[in-house]
Amino acid sequence: MLHYVTTNDGKVREAREYLDAVEAVDFDYTEVQADDLGPIAARGAREAYAHVGGPVLVDDAGLFLEGFDGFPGPYSAYVEHTLGVERVGELARQQAAETDETPRAQFRCVLAYCDGEGFAATPDAVDYGDRRGHDLAADERGTASTSDSVVSGDLPVKLFTGTVRGRIVEPRGEGGFGYDPIFEHDGKTLAEMTAAEKNAISHRGRALATFAEFYAER
């Protein structure tokens, strides 16, 4: 059984389009601060594996604006709730107008998989955690707990990335959620797409498709 750490029923439904025997797990793992999605999802996968005791899948996703060094990226949820989606769109379009460029962006999703075992070399990244940080913490206390070793790098985590590219536009559409109304792909914002259309180009779906191929062999 593969345990998908989420409380979002939509994510589970999407995962089941690619995978058999997926079970949702409600687990509040630590969301570390990082400028990249990978370390955040990997840390969560280690904690979830220690909690569940079996194969786990954790995802993290965000909107990455070109011209803003990837902002808001891993901080997308926080920025959505503080700055607001429309304001993010305004900033992106304003910056693009000043440089006479198209306000391009991408949605990116990273899936982190951990089952307590190592991984053979493949094109997909493997996160081994911050082993040095673990050793320093152990030295300071004179010992290291089992949970410390689990989340700090003793367990490798396989990472799978999915991306969908588009551009930032004035808000359009009544569907979707979050940044969907300002993100246009192939002439439609994600908020204008049906669920089937959106799932067909989903960044999470693309990551799931790659993971499913790996998992079938695993």
TrEMBL record:
Molecular function per GO: hydrolase activity
Keyword field contains Hydrolase: yes
Name of one Pfam family that matches: Ham1p_like
Keywords, in A-Z order: Hydrolase
Family: Belongs to the HAM1 NTPase family.
Name by which UniProt lists this protein: Non-canonical purine NTP pyrophosphatase
Naturally occurring in which organism (per UniProt): Halomarina rubra
